[in-house]
Design a protein that fits this description.
CATH superfamily: Domain of unknown function (DUF427)
CATH topology: Metal Binding Protein, Guanine Nucleotide Exchange Factor, Chain A
Shape: globular
Radius of gyration: 14 Å
Largest sheet: 4 strands, antiparallel
Helix content: under 10%
Number of helices: 2
Distance between the termini: 26 Å
Number of strands: 10
Number of domains: 1
Length: 121
């Protein structure tokens, strides 16, 4: 359980625990033994590591226009399917193209799940 989830259960503001920059920490997202994103300008927000848009390898990403989710804190997420050498993970990456003001820091940044590993260099 994260501190954010504890604060949410207690109906307290959790904005202070949601965001922090990770400058000078080289992070990478790896799938099927390939680096699909790499940056030292990631943001840790609400339990996920977000990568700047210029850090991804675009050839591995395909927009999934028929799938989105809505978060009460961040807004509506747009999802991407990740395909690396024929190994596919549907909706494994997401971005907030027009986030709520509280989440403006992650606008356009990519986060991952569904088997995408996040590693420190």
């Amino acid at each position: 359980m994260t501190i954010c989830s504890i604060l949410k259960r207690a109906n307290q503001s959790s904005n202070a625990c949601l965001f922090h920059n990770q400058p000078n920490k080289r992070m990478k997202a790896v799938f099927n033994n390939k680096i699909i994103a790499e940056s030292n300008q990631t943001i840790r927000y609400d339990g996920s590591t977000y990568f700047p848009p210029d850090s991804i390898v675009p050839a591995y990403f395909r927009l999934d226009p028929d799938f989105s989710t809505t978060c009460s804190i961040k807004g509506t997420a747009t999802y991407y399917t990740v395909n690396v050498n024929g190994e596919i993970r549907d909706q494994a990456a997401w971005i907030y193209e027009d986030p709520k003001p509280e989440a403006a820091s992650v606008k356009g940044y990519f986060a991952f799940w569904r088997g995408i590993r996040i590693l420190k260099n």
